[in-house]
Amino acid sequence: MSHPDLPERSVKLLLAGILMMVLAGVATAAEPPSAASLDEDIQSLKQDVIALNRDLFILEEELLYPANTQLAVYVSLDVGEFFELDSVQLKVDDKVVSNYLYTRREVDALHRGGIQRLYMGNLKAGEHELVAIYTGIGPKGRDYRRGASLVVNKALGTKYVELKIVDNPSSEQPDFSIREWE
Amino acid sequence: MGINHARLACSLILPVLLALVTTGVTATDRKSPSAAQDLQFGEALFYYFQEDWFSSIVRLRIAQAQERLPNHGDEAELLLGGLNLSYGLRNEASEIFERMLTDEHAGAQTRNRAWFYLAKISFQRGDSLNALQALSQISGDMTRATRIEAAQLHSLLLLQLDQNDTAIGVLHAAKEANTWSPYLAYNLGVAYIRSGELERGAKELDTLGELSGRSEELRLLRDKANLALGYSYLKEGATKQSRESLERVRLQGPLSNKALLGTGWADAEAEEFGRALVPFSELGQRNATDPAVQEALLAMPYAMTRMSLHGRAVAQYNDAIATLYDEKDKLDGSISAIRNGELLEILQGQDLRSGSGWLQELTLGTRSPALRYQVTLMAAHEFQEAVKNYRDLLVLHNNLQTWAANIDAYNDMLSARQLRFGDNRPAAERALRSDDHELLQGHHRQLLTRLTQVEATADPVGLADAAQAEQWERLQDIKLKLAGLPVNPGTDALRLRQARVEGALYWQLSSQYKPRLWQAERQLVEVAGLLEQSTQALQSLNAASTVTSEGFDTFMQRIDTKRGLIQSLLERTEAVHLAQGELIERLAVNELEQQKKRLDTYIVQARFSLAQTLDNALYTGKDAVQ
Description:
Chain A is an alpha+beta fold. Chain A contains three helices and eight strands. Chain B is elongated and about 170 Å long.
């Protein structure tokens, strides 16, 4: 026969320990005032840095790419079942202006509806040829390299161009197009 | 002998639920906004989907400032509010949502979403009453995501306030409205159990406990449901059902230690101490930083005592005491490492580019004692938030340093540009003053009129080249002179000759008319294009000369202001960063000190139990030391 009190006591002590551990998880410990005020400081700092970034990006754009000569090129994906994007090369008037290699997270963001600004630069008024060369994995897992081109007429004012990759279900191939935005 | 598991099971459910519902809200938060109809909105989404809240907010703020969101006004504001909240800017987020609610044109969906976010902000601030009040404003048209998230938050708040029956009502209403998710089912199961309806709660949790688990999130939910159910059964003394539920928890999952502990207790409750030793022993082999493992170290000899294995129990108690002391030493080592700044050093060395997996990556390549209790520390919301803020501050610091370097480069560039502009200015001004362009345009207009006349009269002479024009003129002159001479055979022969030559020339001009007309038209189009280009160039020059000459000073001023701001923000960041580091160390040390206290309690318990086991062994006449 074992001592009748022993296990009961041990278990109660054990349970007290568990209870302590569990309660530690639920306790909504009051935040020390310094932590709360620090959080306020961080919020205010973050807001100020965001405002600064907004102003500096606008300043940078106005300084480096004035509206009269500005060209902005964006990349978007629609579906992407027949093409997995690896990289895009952009040429303006036969000169390479951007070579971009995508990470998985970036491709995923494009798949979900994000649009990437690939390039921002300056162009004189008049006609210019834009060529985009895409590499990646095409239908049936094969390496794929395709190009698309467009002649744009640059007038005064910013020119927005979108490089669009769309699935073509009838041909089971990706379609690459270049679209000018008003 | 009955073990009082009531307190244990009851207490375990709530923390599990709290952690779970928070995860659920985050998961549905990531639903995609609608497809971008403005490029700049799409650009903000590009960062949003990468969980780069900072860049996404900046891009949206730029697009708003440049008025480039004609198709996404409301949506951008809503997204901005949500982004601010995700980035820890509760005050800013709150202002945005309150502003949206004052907008008469905001639709019901937008208003409901704004109310939901306001409720969430109040919840994060620990203000349950305001959160409930905001939730009570939600009605009418809303998206499915809003409906689900509002029901989740509402039920969580009610459970926190111990209003279990009201929570059941809210969850039932959501179910009837066909707004259901596994998270809501979990909350309903827990609400039933907390209100004493184990059977109905078990039914809900059972359904979840048998989920196939398509994703890690769902598998974790399944484990949590099984764990909650297992402990609830244990509380009621239903050991068989308890074991069944707990055995469904994955053996290698994050909840496996708690499940193994519960399984052992279920067996002990059923007086199957030999069987209980299996999960307790398995736990005893695991990392002793986990409280469940520490618990098992004492549960093992307890089971042995109940099996009258006093000798083994004594040895096990001694081992447990040694392990607990060892763990205490390790805790001291960790506390000392944290106080020496090792934790902050590791946090500072982290890869700031990594996405949401940064927390897991933190331990890669380091065996520092400062990180030994990382899992325990990170389980505390306050500590996790503090570390997130610390990381955000590091990112801000890098951002400001990059701008500090760029702004100097822009300053140099602007100075060089100003110098070049000064050199080119006289020529530019001459070009702008000159009337050459107007003269050329006038000349082009004359030529165009002449060509139109030639084409209208189909006169080939009008397109004669210089030599032909001179010949034609001379022939006309001769013709005129011949007309004034008397008619006789001599003059007739001359007239005939003149007519033949004129005819030949006319024939030549006629045959060249069409190609010449086509060429002339083409040349005039080309000239028109060139004139248009020069018009644009002059307009650009004009704009540049007025904007740039004034702009240089404005730009310089803006650069100077921003440079000063960058410096002051860098100083603020460094100060806050330092304070945040101290806070993290303080929180970590406090938590580890708590762990030490718990270990002390366990050690006292173990020593006491050891003494009693020895005593008991002697009392029953057995040799405990064998």
